[in-house]
Write a structure and sequence with these properties.
alpha/beta; about 250 residues; globular; 10 helices; single chain
């Protein structure tokens, strides 16, 4: 099934190719596990990497991986049907994460943080099992700048995410090819191609991560007067001046 190549598709394709080149994300012979959650971002990433693969000057393979955390009502069948219809090699992993979260989570603490850690660990393990040297995640430009602001406002740290980094296991390289892609384009691309978005069915889905939603609202307001504010913040992540910061480990 062919993708509809509208303006959003072309913009995403252009910036994804640039990100891959800028950070040397993909090399000849790579076998890349792509985390597919059932959300718009991961569907878009998988399809875009496949579109680029067909014309890439290097050879690489893709393996779509979905993790079922065990939340009641999660429709893995819809995700798997989409992957099959588009001919993607894939693996569906059923886990007991929900039970672990219910047992280990402290009252009042976030579902999202512990769920993300469990999923990340499982993704690393599956990447190794299927001999994938890289793991591609669908974080986009908006995620990067929102995370930057969240860490500054609420964690007292100056950090966001890396475009390419070696995972804590020392074996898997995590890549984020959508670092330059804006969420609004991904939304349009996803809707135009009718990607079957599936809710994770987490008990707090839609109400969790209120701080991130506040960052989205803040950036939306700032964009009214400064249309390029998100791109400026992203640029700041690549233009660090350690001498003008207060970190004693850098300037002690």
């Amino acid at each position: 099934m062919a993708l509809i190549e509208d303006k959003s598709y072309m913009r995403i394709k252009k910036v994804t190719g640039k990100a891959i080149a800028d950070f040397s994300m993909i090399e000849d012979g790579d076998r890349i596990a792509v985390g597919v959650s059932g959300g718009k971002d991961s569907y878009a990433l998988l399809h875009m990497l496949e579109a680029l693969r067909k014309r890439a000057p290097v050879r690489y393979e893709l393996l779509a991986i979905n993790i079922d955390s065990g939340y009641p009502g999660f429709r893995t069948d819809i995700i798997e049907q989409h992957l099959q219809e588009h001919g993607f090699t894939h693996h569906m992993e059923k886990t007991g994460h929900y039970e672990i979260i219910r047992e280990k989570r402290h009252p009042g603490s976030s579902y999202c943080s512990i769920c993300a850690r469990l999923k990340r660990g499982t993704l690393y393990s599956l990447a190794q099992r299927f001999e994938c040297n890289k793991l591609a995640l669908g974080h986009h430009l908006d995620d990067f700048v929102e995370t930057l602001l969240l860490n500054q406002f609420f964690a007292g740290s100056l950090k966001a995410m890396a475009g390419k980094m070696l995972a804590d296991n020392g074996m898997t390289t995590v890549i984020r090819p959508f670092v330059y892609a804006e969420e609004k384009d991904i939304i349009t691309f996803s809707r135009t191609n009718h990607f079957p978005v599936v809710c994770c069915r987490c008990p707090v889905c839609g109400v969790a991560d209120m701080q991130r939603k506040k960052m989205k609202l803040l950036l939306t307001e700032m964009e009214k007067d400064h249309p390029f504010v998100k791109k400026s913040l992203l640029k700041a992540l690549a233009n660090v001046k350690p001498r003008h910061l207060l970190d004693l480990k850098l300037n002690g």
